[in-house]
Design a protein that fits this description.
It is a single chain. This protein is globular. It has an eight-stranded antiparallel beta sheet, covered by helices on one side. It has 337 residues and is mostly beta strands. The longest helix is centred in the N-terminal third of the chain and has 21 residues.
Amino acid sequence: MKRLASLTFLGLVILIFSCKKSSTPIPTPIPIIPSVTTPLITLPAGWKFNSTLSTNFPLGSMQAYKFDTIWAGRSTKAVCLVYNSANTGIEFKPVQSPTAKKPTEFFAQETGVYTCINGGYFGGNQSFSLVKYNNIVSSPNVKILNRIYNGVSTPYYATRAAFGVTSAGAPNVGWVYSVGSGNDNIYSYLAPSPNVEGQAPQVEPTSLFPSGGSVWNVASAIGGSPMLIRNNVVNISDVAELISINNTTSRPRSAIGYTSGGMVVILVVEGDNPAGGYVGMNLAELADMMRSLSCTNAMNLDGGGSSMMVIGNQQVIRPGDAAGERPVVSAVIIKQR
């Protein structure tokens, strides 16, 4: 009887203790949120993920990074946007305006825009670089360039660099030319037509010349010049592309390229601002920076005062022109599809 009473008393104590314990509220677990987002590319020294610029980006598919330290022995400020081309919800949209306007205006003209960067070369309200969107060419890469040969202004036919994406979003670069009388028959070549200013011009490109040409199967594209990186090798083809605009001097720069894993890399470099300590970089330094960001292929866009990237409707660098942001004729918009 004593043993039974002891067991009964022990059970009662356990029951009371259990009731008291169960009456205490169980705290809701607090989710652990990583303080640092895993970069989409391997970041070189000096580059940092920027959470403020990346606030409204699709998680895990788009990120912005900043660089504000020493590059090539000088204080350098640059901003890089990277997105996964496999994400079908992200649209690559080159745009052209009949009258020049600022990248911030291009940004504001549509909804769901993540970023906007200046496009290719232009003069007045005319684009000299390819602009193609959804298989419609609004401007070809310039087909004829006059240069002095034997003391006479002579037409040259340059194959210039362009960056495009297929209908599935896969990125591609090439030296291109609109073959024939129209603008839609765009051929891409394995190497540029070997023009050299001051030497006899090469014949106009065709489906057979330069060798290895094929119809460029991209849905949307933006032209620029020159090529910076091709097939994982720095290849600045400014001579053959007949483009010589401050190539070896420090200026603001814009570039676009992609990695072997299909990450599209868009870069802008601040310059022409001695008071702020940033003078920019030359083409060789730009190519090296794109290469350091894992680009296997990359192309230069218009630079100087035209260089500008807009994220969240805000300029991410100071304009190179003293008057402020320069109106341009073409731009690249990255937006929600």
